[in-house]
Amino acid sequence: MHATFTFPRAARLLAATLMAMLPLQAMAGLMLNPTRVVFTKNQRAAQVELINSDSTPATYRISLVNRRMTESGEFTNADTAGPDERFADAMLSFSPRQVTLQPGTAQVVRVMLRKPEALAAGEYRSHLHFEKLADRSSATSVEQQGANAQQIGVVLNSLIGASIPVIVRHQTEGASVTLGALALQKSGQGAQLVFQIARSGDSSVYGDISAAFTPQGGAEQVLARAAGIAIYTPNPMRKASLAMPAGVNLARGTVHLRFRERAEAGGALLAEATLALP
């Protein structure tokens, strides 16, 4: 039996606040903590809290999937490993595989690792996927009227889910990162700072990006931030951009782009680059 537990009111309010900070696919009443699992050295077990922050009961199905990151940061399903790709699913197990949670309750999902003998050095990754199953009793019916005046009922049962990476590092040496190809692009929607994050080494990198602007003779001001940016192995590069706030005169100064470890990892500066604006 897997126990669930109820959050007090203060914790539920905190959960609602944190949900607003999660990626879109992790919303709709589904929260995960932590949002990534990394096995290093002799670690063999980890746990993830699955939280139903919605106002109705929900059933979640849990599975392991393999995914590949594109240069733009999007994920695609990966049926077989490509060159230099290493999936972790064969050495991972987890429990439970499905759970129904009442509003404001959480379930601990335990993830276990068993490394095979003579495992090749490197970083292995799969994704733990949490799928919120549709509630048949609350399915939405959409009526459409055709040319022959017949009514066609369509039932929409949408599946909502979120995934987190599960990374196994075995005898890895680490990674380094550089920032480059900075450019300011302006359009009718405003200005964007585009750039590239280059990764080298045998491990993925993960951190936060910030862009600051220093006008000539003025003080530096932070313009934009993005948290939880990853470049996974074997990708050598990721293309990204940050939207610049409206009303800032981006001229005659310097844009300073910084990539740091997450605060909980120490916040060390991993890479930085500048762009001079005439």
Describe this structure in words.
With 278 residues, the protein is mostly beta strands. It folds into two domains: 4-170, Immunoglobulin-like, CATH 2.60.40.10; 175-277, Immunoglobulin-like. 4% of the residues lie in helices and 55% in strands. The protein has one helix and 21 strands. It has one helix at 9-19, and strands at residues 4-6, 30-33, 37-39, 45-52, 58-65, 67-69, 75-77, 92-95, 98-101, 105-113, 122-132, 140-145, 151-156, 160-170, 175-187, 190-201, 205-215, 221-231, 237-243, 253-260, 269-277. Strands 1, 2, 4, 8 and 10 form a five-stranded antiparallel beta sheet that branches. A five-stranded mixed beta sheet has the order 3-14-11-5-9, with no helix packed on it. Strand 12 and strand 13 (151-156) form a beta hairpin. The chain is globular. It starts with a strand and ends with a strand. The model is unreliable at 1-27 and 138-158 (pLDDT under 50).
